[in-house]
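Troubleshooting log. The previous structure file for this entry was overwritten by mistake, so regenerating from the original sequence record. Sequence copied from the archived sheet and checked twice against the printout by T.R.
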Amino acid sequence: MGFARYIPIAFLVAGLVLVQQVTQHTGTTFYLTQLTMAAYYALVITGLCLLMGYAGQISLGHAGFFAIGGYIPAALTTYNLEPLREKWLVQTLDAAGLLTAGQDLYGQQVLHVHPWPSCILALLLTAGLAFVIGMPVLKLKGHYLAMATLGFGTIVYRVFLAMPLFGEADGISAVPPFPLLPGVTVSGDFAARTENYYIAFGLLIVGLLFLINLVHSRIGRAFRAIHGSEEAANAMGINTPRLKLQAFVISAVFAALAGVFLTHYNGGIGPSEASVMKSIRYVAIVAVGGMASLWGVFFMGILLNFMSLRGMFGTYDDAVFGVILILIMLFAPNGLLRLHLWQRMRRWRGVDKPKSRTE
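Regenerated output below.
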């Protein structure tokens, strides 16, 4: 019975290979660029699904965690430490092999932090911030919790927008490739487009497998109990504050990890990645896919982000996701994929009327 939950993964892998082969043989490999970016955004959304759909906690600040995961490695891997080489901290980092030397476009010697320690630092910082913020914030409920997380996201956005270290309104560019394995790098190089496609979806599948195992475990059942009723969960002996905090930290790390990889893939990051509308977009996609449906959120995350990245919504991109969120909350709170659309249309037209209890 437990093995059956992994069967869709095999079909997903086959589908991904099929898509790549079709694009290659039809000369449309440029689609892989948007699909790769959509996969990284979907990683944020699946992590948010754990928090919202299973633990029952809303967050309007996950764009902030994504931006932290992107900005910290971007700043560390592009800031030149060569003028500070004589400092003891720089010498210690260099001796530990955490720095990488090279030359810039003008032939000048540069010294940067290696992408791997930058990534680890970003993830640890995100987890620490999520822990510190989550302890008081997760005591709130409903719109109070939403407003508190929105405030966190706004603070992160303003910090990155105002600090020269993070490029202010211009953001950070010229972020180097991420050497994932010997000969395998995360970068926007056209020659490595197919390679990066499989890296992105490989990371997404690993995250999906982790969440599938988690939600089907004892902890996952506790999450669902908290979502149903915190009072009843407490009465059953479930440590609800600790589990809500765990879900918050895990979802934040998912967002930061996506930020790290997408920043290295794009070669840069801007303050728009930390904007409120980004957080609203993530929430909207979770709502469309179904609050407690990892597969629904996964597919909707890929589809809607791909459509957005292809420019199908034009200048109304943010407005479209705002309207989607409103419509889903009004007419399909359990998600679009769980909406019995035909039956609802027949009832709306008066063809099928729900039976009363006396009939």
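The beta strands are 99-103, 109-113, 172-173, 178-181, 184-186, 268-269. Archived copy saved in two places this time.
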